[in-house]
Here is the input.
Amino acid sequence: MFSVVIPLYNKELSIQNTIHSVLNQTIQDFEIVIVNDGSTDNSVEKVVEIIDARIRIINKPNEGVSSARNMGVEEAKYEWIAFLDGDDLWQVNHLEEIVKMMKLFPNEQIYCTSFVCDNQVSKSKSLKDDIIVLNTKEYFKLAYFGAVIWTSILVVNKRLFSENNGFNENLSRGEDLELWSRLANKTNVVKNSKVTAVYRLEAENRSFSNKLNFNKSYISIISLNTNTKEERKYNKMLLKAAIKKNIKSKDLFLALKLILKYFFK
Here is the structure.
């Protein structure tokens, strides 16, 4: 039923734990598509050590995580795409909760649970119900307060993903947020408050630079001319956060550029 797409770039210390978190699922109807994005360490060798016929490795030159994820979806055999990063973890009931959501709302195309960041729950403080269906306005209203979708908790219909061109490969910062916004404008999002995944902030090879590469960031293409006031408010929040980040990193020119471009037209 599920194609689990895992982009892989220099994760030799964590990839086996990530894969085992999939193999240990209570729901076993899946394939695992590992897209090796030009790793230079022993990541691939670590994958090969795990013997399971459901695991496939696809090798490609290093072109970034968006390219790797998109290729994984292209190679996927099944209708439903579950993403998982190469250093994050699923709890054993992740796919079980997704299946529960699908049975409750069989006509939807996006399902996501909730997650923890190194043992701290990261979900909107407004999310009270166990499982809710969010339309476009409701999605952006909730996303203003915290992450509704995150890559490693998302399951999306392959056709919906492909018809909307997947991840924007021209972006290297905020490419996930850009896709979530596009998809939320197309269809409902089914959200489960149950935590089923762990985002490992301390994992290897993570980048947390405050320096914003403007031309490669979602901020460079974000718009305040939106379909709803809820999305506009959400986008303004992202812009203000980017401005604060650039002031903190002493990139005052870029901070001023963002202010003038988006708030003084």
About this structure: Residues 48 and 57 are 9 Å apart (CA to CA).
